[in-house]
Amino acid sequence: MISQINNVAPKKNLDLSPRDLYITFNYTNLLQEIYQIPEENILHVHGSLKQEGEMQRSRASKAKGIVFPQQSSIQFGSLYNDPKQIEDELVKGYGRDDCFGASIEPGINKLINYCEASFKDLKSNYDVLKQFISKKGISNVTIIWHPIMRIDNSYYEDVIVPALKNCVWTFYYYKNDNDARKFIEAFGIFKYEMKKLP
Fold this sequence. Notes:
Structural class: alpha/beta
Number of helices: 7
Number of strands: 5
Number of domains: 2
Largest sheet: 3 strands, parallel
């Protein structure tokens, strides 16, 4: 049994400039708090915990302490739990059941509410991402330990690589560089370097 957890202060492991732009798929304020990166130079693609907290406090103050169940500013979940598709499949499979209206439909509604709250709609973030990377002339792209060939791959395929393909790319990796090598091959990146994280 764990009886105590000690707080460990995060350390700066990388040399990050406050003048550069940062696209982060992380929900925390690490870049602002540890690396002193200005807020205007950071894009939290899926929202941030700080923004969510401010939104919740704003809603609560407007409603005299009542927080309305509105859409979260954080896209926390999967792009594979498309609410409409799941609902259609469940209604198709169980819609003719005698107990549908009394017990199955309320369960489906709860599941759909969860899916709507946790659905990552990547394409809805494209315009904001495009505007952010067009802010200033970018000549270098650095990817730090991000699963680039997985769930967020569409961002790279549809927005980031088309806009920044001719830049110099630096890939920081943790255990192995397999994802980075797949990325380089898939997108035809010619100017790149690989660095192992400390």
